[in-house]
Structures are given as C-alpha cells and as structure tokens.
Amino acid sequence: MAVIDCDAHVEEGLETWDYLPPGFERQRPFPVQFPDDTVFGAHNAAWVIDYKIRLYGGTPTIMKRALQKGADIGVQELTDIEGRIAAMAEAGIDKQVVFPTIWQGPVAENPELEAALASSWNTFMATQCAKSDGRLFFAAVVPYRRPDLAVAELRRVKERGGAAGIYTHGIPWDMPLSNPAFMPIYEEAARLGLPILIHTGSTSPTLRHMAEPYPRPDRQQFPQTNPYSGGLNQVIYGFWQLMDSGAMDRFPDLRVVILEIGCDWTPWIVKGLRERKHTRIDDWLGDRIFVSCAVGDDLSYVVDRLGDDFLVTASDFPHGDAFREDHLAEELDRRGDLSAATIDKILTVNPQRAFTALR
Does pLDDT of 217 surpass 60? Predict the structure, then answer.
C-alpha cells in the first residue's frame, strides 16, 4: 500500500523567487524580522511584497516559529530534497502533493506582479520536485484575476512536469468560483488533467477587512477564529459555487479536490446539492469530486452515508496547526472503526483517481 499525502506544504524561502521573469527583479519579495517580544511572538518575520507586509503562516523561515516544527529549514523550504524524502519515509509517506504557504492570503494587489510571483513559485517547485524521483508533486498557482495568463501558466507548468493540480481558495480576490471569467481556466484544467484544489486561505480583501476588528489572542499573524476566516465557510462556499457554475457539466473531465477542512460537512452539503437538482453529485463523488478527511473526523458516519470512494487524506506537514498529522496510516488504523479496504482507498486508491499525475 502506497501512502499518498494529498496536502503537505512548502514554507517559502528566498530561493522561491529566483525564477522571476525579466523586469520583476526589483519587485522581488524580501523578508523582514520583528523583535520576538512583540505581539507577533514566534511569528516574528514577514515578507514585503508589493509595498505591503505579508504574514501568512510560517513563512519566511527566518521566523522563530520555523525552529519549532521539528523539521530542518531546508526540509521546510524544499531546498533539501533528500531531507524532505527522509522525513516522508519516517512518517511512512510515499508521495506528497505540496501546497504553498504564502498564498494563504493576498500576495500582491498588482495582478501582473502576482502572475510573475506565481510563475517563479511554480518554476521553483517544478525544479525541486524533479529531484525527488517521483515522490513530490505540487499544486500550481495561477493568477485568477488574469485568466489569459492563468491558462498560459497552466500550459507551461504542465509541460515542465510535477504539477498535480491547481491551487485556489473559495473566494479568490472577492470573486466566486462561479465567475464566468474562470471558465477558460476550468476548461484548460480539464484538458490537461489537473484538478481544481480548493484549499483553506483567503484572498478575499473584503472578508479580510471585515475580520480585522476581531481580537487576535492566540493567532497573532492574522484573524483565524472568526466567521470570516479562510477555513470551513469559504471552502464550502467555493465548492457550492463551483457546483452551481455549470463547469462540471460543461467540462466532463474536470475534477475537484477539497482540502484542509475535514469531511464531516459532506453529508449535509451533498444533501443540499441533491435538493438543488444536482442529480449527478452522487456519481461524481469518488469519480470527479474528492474530499480530504482528517484522521479524527467522524469517518464511520460519513462512510455510512456517502461511501468511501471519495475520501483522501493529508499530513499538512510541516505546518504546526490542528491539521498536522505525521503518521497517517498508523492513525487511521488506530481508530479501529475502519476496514483495511477503506483505509487502502483513503491512502492509495482514491488519491490516484483524484490526481492523474500520481498514477
């Protein structure tokens, strides 16, 4: 049984930006560090990009928090591929799909700069994943505000190799995933065999502004425990909008994977989609729609109602939040309520159906 980790991360370092297109060198991101006795605590560093401070999670790795994750900096940054593979082996993981960290929030208001940053990030990831002997893949980043550039970038990353899917949020730049302007992106994704990967995070300036008044006692870097956060609400909204967009019917090869919000919500949402006359939702589960579960989810309930063909799982490594799980196979087996066949589907069979690049 091959264990496939469908959502790990890179903590971006300076080398991430070594591949900026000509003309953007002076706009390259650079890190700044804060005193560690301020309200930022161990998250005492940030990126300066497009004239603003960007502090999303554990990047840049000069922050104190990076030393608290039990992984060397090169392993976090993917500059040490041998070390990363060794960490995977220790956790019993055969393959990983690696997501960004810096794109948990708005990276640049300038859409052309954002496209240049995405290009550099994708090239860095393709370069590093190519050194892994088929163990590492990445979720490509594209500029949703420029669908023409996004389509061109999809073609470029597909040709370079290593891309497993397309990273997105539930509301990219205040636009729903049902936005007709996104249809060329979905069409090209379907043609290239790259699933749409709806992940936590928020590039919605409006919702981030609405969250600013909330106190930040526990998560200094940005408001997380509030109704407008980048977690469950936005991801489910994005999934619902994508289902209502007609893209699944228009592009029969389009696939979707929902990540880092668990799977307990799926029976309720699927019931709602059935009531909205999305009569093919049950056919699509496990064929074109997949959901990453957490090892502590109510999996018996979900499997009883929807089956086990659509579930995958993830480690969130090297992040240090509630979704981090370093030993996926052991923890799923330790539950005691899942059959060996179901565990095999979650860890191996279903991820291979979701991500054609991993087959």
Answer: no
pLDDT tens digits, one per residue of 155-210: 999 999 999 999 999 999 999 999 999 999 999 999 999 999 999 988 888 887 77
What predicted TM-score, i.e. pTM, was given to this entire model?
0.95
What single string gives the DSSP state of each residue in 224-269? Answer: -SSTTSSSHHHHHHHHHHHHHTTHHHH-TT--EEE-SS-STTHHHH
Q: pLDDT grade, residue 226 (50/70/90)?
A: very low
- Specify the residue for token string 């420029």: 146
Pick from 224, 165, 174, 175: nearest CA to 200: 224
Query: One-letter amino acid identity for 320?
Result: G
Report residue 285 as tokens.
């589960």
Of 157, 132, 124, 127, nearest to 142 by C-alpha is: 157
CA distances from 219 to 41, 167, 179, 321, 325 (A): 9, 24, 32, 10, 20
Mean pLDDT of 103-114: 95
Measured CA distances, 43 to 6, 33, 68, 112, 220 (Å): 26, 9, 11, 29, 7
Amino acid (one-letter) located at 324 = R
The average pLDDT across 335-342 equals 97
Bridge partners for 32 per DSSP: 46
Give the span between the Cα atoms of 188 and 185, in whole angstroms.
5
The pLDDT of 58-64, averaged and rounded, is 92
Report d(CA 226, CA 269) in Å as an integer: 21
Helices 299-306 + 266-275 axis angle, to 10: 30
DSSP 93-145: -SEEEEE-SGGGS---SSHHHHHHHHHHHHHHHHHHHGGGSSSEEEEE---TT
- State whether residue 290 is helix, strand or coil: strand
How far apart CA 137 and CA 356 sit, in angstroms, is 11
